[in-house]
Each structure stands twice: as C-alpha cells, then as structure tokens.
Specification:
binds methionine sulfoxide, globular, six-stranded antiparallel beta sheet, Beta-Lactamase, about 35% helix
Length: about 160
C-alpha cells in the first residue's frame, strides 16, 4: 500500500468509491486495531476535510474516546447520552442535520453543526461507534450512511 491516498472523482460518492478499496488495502496486513482506526480517521478527514472524525470504543457502560482527527473531544460518553450514546443504545446509525436540535447533544465544539454516527457491531454487540462531525448544517445523507457503513464493515470483525 502506498503511503498516499489516490483520490479521483468530484462527488462525495465518487470519493468514497475510490477511498474504500484503499482503506481495505491499508488495514489488510496490519493487525493492530488502534493503528487501523487511526489511519481510517485520518483518511476520512484528509479526503473530505470533515471537522472531526473519530472512534469511541465501548468499555463497560461507557464509550471511551479512541483514535480521532480534529479538536480535543469528550473522553467518556454514557450509554444513551448524546448522538454517540444514542446510536450505541439503539444499535443504529444516526444522521443529525442540526445537532442543536438533537436532545442531549454533547457539544464538544460549538463549531460542529451536523453529525453522523455509525455503530460498529460484532457478534451482535455494538463494540464502537464511528463519529463524523461537520461544521456545515445538513452535511450528511444516505450516501454517507451507505459508504460509512460499508467502511466500518471492513473492520467490524476485528473488534
Ligand atoms: N457530538 C457527540 C459527542 C462527541 S463529539 O462531537 C466528538 C455526541 O453528541 O455524541
């Protein structure tokens, strides 16, 4: 795997289509989960310039901050709290077009305006969530949901 991402295409969907096979190759021979999550967060941020991209790992009854790219963030999130804790509790992806309208949203940064959180499920349990935040309102849609779901499925069995 080259050290650089080769991205082609203009639309976000085209970028996902060129990015995901490269992420697959990037993590294929690396067994370390933290290293792989770190590179996935970096690849997403580098490709789309999202405001914040990162993983929270389920540890006991909390989510604990894992590898991320962006500003410092909340370290621990209780089950059912905020967008991340709700996606964990419900084991479903949440697309939030305006975080200020989401009851209980945890504002790590006032600059974050919309968000998508994708749970990572292995053996029927949520093990982690991938959280992507944007500084634009309504920045995520079904395209992001589809490709970010495909992306976490590449790594879900490592959790
Ligand atoms: N906004 C998230 C908290 C995590 S940070 O944005 C990085 C939430 O409400 O779950």
């Amino acid at each position: 795997m080259a050290d650089e991402l080769i991205l082609s295409g203009e639309s976000r969907e085209e970028k996902y289509q060129t990015l995901i096979p490269q992420i697959k190759a990037l993590i294929a021979d690396e067994p370390d989960l933290v290293a792989n999550c770190a590179n996935i967060a970096a690849a997403l941020r580098q490709t789309f310039n999202f405001f914040w991209v990162g993983f929270y790992f389920v540890k006991g009854d909390e989510l604990v901050l894992g590898p991320f790219q962006g500003e410092i963030a909340c370290t621990r999130i209780a089950k059912g709290r905020g967008v991340c804790g709700t996606a964990w509790q419900n084991a479903e992806t949440l697309v939030v077009s305006n975080v200020n309208d989401f009851p209980g949203h945890i504002a790590c940064s006032a600059a974050s305006l919309s968000e998508i959180v994708v749970p990572i499920i292995n053996k029927g349990q949520v093990r982690s969530v991938l959280d992507v935040d944007s500084d634009k309102l309504d920045d995520f849609n079904a395209i992001d949901q589809k490709y970010l779901t495909d992306l976490v499925e590449i790594i879900a069995d490592r959790f």
